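Re: that chain you flagged

S.,

Sorry for the slow reply, it's been a week of failed gels. I finally had a moment to sit down with the sequence you sent. For the record, here it is as I used it:
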Amino acid sequence: MHPPTITELTLPVTGRALPGTLAVPEQPVGLVVFAHGSGSSRTSPRNRYVAGLLHHAGLATLLFDLLTEDEESERGNVFDIELLAGRLAEVLTWRRTRPELADLPLGLFGASTGAAAALWAAADGDLGVRAVVSRGGRPDLAAALLPGVRAATLLIVGGLDTAVLALNQEAAAELGGEHAVAVVPGATHLFEEPGTLHHAGELARDWLLRHLSPTG
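Prediction finished late last night. Pasting the structure tokens below so you have them in one place:
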């Protein structure tokens, strides 16, 4: 299999220009846009690892910084889910201007606070999100919008991340579409234990392929 074509981008959002990395394999079956969590960026080794698994499955990925460096220094911005979701929505609208992306089925992958932003954006039916995966996410931060999320949603949580697991189980009951909670045994919040990130990545890959690819 040939490696994906990598393109470094500058993504236009209101009043800002955000750096992003687009990876497109041969004959992609879908596009997955990543929304990273607090204290992270498009260079997150965990998200890049998961993106690599998705590339091998024929999925294109877009990782981008939700905030500028100056904005990240203000802690309040990191938890401003409406701001983050608005940036994500603008990028999802922008992708329709790219011929190689415009017609690809769309999925989102969010970690930590990025998962809340992904679910917030997914609640907007005009953006065309078909599937969402949350890894160690905080879906409770988008609680008011969860009933409006019709995209198939998988919430992946570490088995040892007990507080976040409880929040995810409560949030799952509020989701308006198909959903599931997947627990990775022996994993804490950052999935740093041997094999746990790979397990989470496989769960994400299988869920996204099922809901994005025509043969899934």
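What I noticed first: The longest strand covers residues 5-13.

Talk soon,
D.
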